[in-house]
């Protein structure tokens, strides 16, 4: 019995950690209505292209809140650099919206979308 426990406990632990580290693509999928990052980015792109800056500012806050929910789920299965880069993109987006700079806003959103796609790979 002791030999079985000595062998099985490390194997079970390793399998558990491997499953956690490979679960990034599953955990980043939306669970509710308020944590769909790709949809939020698409809606922001539409608002920025139509230069609806007030609505874009509100949706940026919604995107940030959604990201804070998702980052808690994917923090163990994603690279820390990708998580930090997504945070930086949201900060750049806030500044570009405050400046009402259409091109910088779209650049920040596309960069954020690329970081989102790379998250969990």
Automatic annotation (TrEMBL):
TM ranges: 6-27
Stated name of the protein: DUF4363 family protein
Source taxon at top rank: Bacteria
Keywords: Membrane, Transmembrane, Transmembrane helix
Matching InterPro entries: DUF4363 (IPR025373)
């Amino acid at each position: 019995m002791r030999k079985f426990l000595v062998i099985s406990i490390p194997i079970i632990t390793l399998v558990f950690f491997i499953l956690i580290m490979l679960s990034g693509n599953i955990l980043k999928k939306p669970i509710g209505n308020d944590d769909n990052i790709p949809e939020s980015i698409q809606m922001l792109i539409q608002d920025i292209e139509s230069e609806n800056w007030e609505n874009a500012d509100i949706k940026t806050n919604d995107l940030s809140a959604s990201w804070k929910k998702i980052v808690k789920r994917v923090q163990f299965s994603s690279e820390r650099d990708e998580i930090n880069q997504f945070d930086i993109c949201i900060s750049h987006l806030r500044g570009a919206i405050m400046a009402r700079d259409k091109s910088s806003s779209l650049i920040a959103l596309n960069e954020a979308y690329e970081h989102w796609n790379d998250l969990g790979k």
